[in-house]
Design brief:
alpha+beta; six-stranded mixed β-sheet
Length: about 525
């Protein structure tokens, strides 16, 4: 039986993988995780998709078990500031798109929107976020009863199987290093062997498969399956097995980031329950509120901005609170390995692939890859079908997310610097240009977005197109002949629901003060 797994590299990717596989296979699998004491977690992956709750559910963990330990907060969506013009903002919320007479409400909004704010007219979450509110009441109940903790929902499904069935109203922000620490305890208590040592080389057998990894003090660690969680270095997949890397930088030029962890008085500041992406002259700045600090960073392209200029801009953006914060400069490898499973090595996390964290996809990529590995775990015969299915799923998710991120830049109206003007002349992925032409006259649907699962439903595309403002959009011609009364009632229902929630939900800070 193939059951001896060696994970090289810890951090979020390594410990999420070890924890999930141990929860999936229990004592039937032997897992060793080896990590260097010298390599820390990069820590840009502090925001997530709402699907991450399925990871914690699979591990049998409730929010009260892990959130306080990770300084975690709720994320109800993404706020984009200054992408259209200075002073403008909009939300990409976690909320199911409403439909009226077979047309998405956003289509009706193009036809007869009550205000200029599609996000507040078509969703309740935009106003909830603006007010800095928690999606849970002080007694712990959720704002929408279909998602109450006691409600029945299909368990054991992968993220792709869940998509389209529900849209959970929030995701999480957390400290990546603290989550790795928490999962270290979770996994080792369940039998994962933890080795702290430096991996010096990978030994290959006559087939070119990995037979062991050599460590500085613990000798050779042998295994059947080796999982590469060594980050951008790709020690096993890219170096030992020489698997090529496919760069996305021709279409996504941001290749660097500088990050700060800024302690703040969150009671005074308040917790806005969203990730904020604020456009800058040569990229954008993320702002992630946690219970005791704010995580922030400038994602930029070195072709347009130096690291020193980026750090100075970030510190000015944060203000006096950034004075004592140490800057972490990161070179990002944007793209994916040609195949993430080669021979008996599977790469998960940055060793597999990465795109800038504009839509918080880093943790999502890890979670998706782990699910796919558990689903396609090899047998003693190492049948290539399992490997090929895994590689196809991982590649398609990353290629689809690449398209979605490129759309942010192509559709952004901003053009005040060379960086933003160049968004109109850079190449775009095959197929996206044709899709955009269709979306000009008919908003995206499941038939016209990237055709494979990539974690982003059609309404996400609608939000970006409507919010960025750089691509002209038209309502469906059919709406000119349709009775608008039902749509008007839906807009009114959203206004009423929004007013009710804003008047009854607690402030996010107050909720976490009580919960933690």
């Amino acid at each position: 039986m193939l059951n001896k797994v060696v994970i090289v590299g810890g951090g979020t990717a390594g410990w999420m993988t070890a924890s999930y596989l141990k929860a999936a296979f229990g004592e039937r699998i032997d897992i060793t995780l080896v990590e260097s004491a010298k390599v820390g977690t990069i820590g840009v992956g502090e925001a997530t998709f709402s699907d991450i709750r399925h990871f914690f559910e699979f591990l049998g963990l409730k929010e009260k078990d892990w959130m306080p330990a990770c300084n975690a907060t709720y994320k109800l969506g993404v706020r984009f500031e200054n992408w259209r013009e200075q002073g403008h903002y909009f939300y990409h919320p976690f909320e199911q798109m409403r439909s009226v007479n077979g047309h998405p409400l956003t289509d009706w909004w193009l036809q007869q929107g009550p205000t200029e704010r599609f996000d507040k007219d078509c969703f309740v979450m935009a106003s909830v976020i603006d007010a800095g509110l928690s999606p849970r009441r002080l007694d712990g109940t959720l704002l929408d009863t279909p998602f109450d903790d006691n409600a029945e929902e299909a368990q054991g499904l992968t993220m792709s199987e869940h998509q389209g069935k529900t849209q959970f109203p929030y995701a999480y922000h957390f400290e990546a290093a603290l989550l790795a620490e928490y999962l270290t305890t979770y996994a080792t208590e369940r039998g994962v062997r933890h080795v702290i040592d430096d991996v010096e080389a990978a030994d290959l057998d006559e087939r070119g498969w990995i037979s062991s990894v050599r460590t500085a003090r613990h000798g050779a660690l042998t295994g059947d399956l080796f999982i590469d969680c060594t980050g951008f270095r790709g020690v096993l997949l890219n170096k030992a097995l020489e698997e090529p890397f496919i760069s996305y930088q021709d279409t996504l030029p941001n290749d660097s980031a500088v990050a700060l962890q800024v302690p703040m008085d969150m009671e005074r500041r308040g917790i806005r329950p969203c990730t904020t992406a604020t456009a800058q002259d040569a990229g954008w700045i993320w702002t992630i509120p946690l219970t005791g600090r704010v995580g922030t960073g400038y994602v930029y392209a070195r072709d347009y901005l130096s690291p020193e200029e980026a750090e100075r801009t970030l510190r000015e953006f944060v203000g006096p609170a950034a004075a004592g914060a140490e800057a972490n400069h990161i070179r990002m490898r944007i793209g994916r390995s040609r195949n993430s499973w080669v021979k008996n090595c599977v790469a998960i996390g940055l060793a597999s692939g990465f795109v800038e964290p504009l839509e918080s996809t880093g943790i999502f990529f890890i979670h998706h890859a782990i699910e796919q590995l558990a689903k396609n775990f090899p047998g003693p015969d190492w049948h290539p079908t399992h490997r090929d299915r895994y590689n196809d799923a991982v590649a398609r998710v990353m290629d689809g997310v690449r398209e979605f991120l490129v759309l942010h830049y192509v559709s952004a109206k901003r053009s005040d610097t060379q960086y933003w003007r160049d968004t109109n002349t850079r190449p775009i992925p095959d197929g996206l240009a044709e899709r955009i032409e269709k979306w000009r006259t008919q908003l995206p649907d499941s038939e016209t977005v990237f055709p494979y699962y990539h974690g982003l439903p059609p309404y996400s595309y609608m939000c970006i197109l409507l919010g960025m403002g750089g691509i002209g959009l038209k309502p469906s011609p059919a709406l000119a002949l349709a009775d608008p009364a039902a749509a008007q009632r839906e807009f009114e229902a959203i206004r009423e629901k929004t007013g009710q929630l804003v008047n009854t939900l607690p402030k996010a800070y107050d909720y976490f003060t009580r919960a933690h």
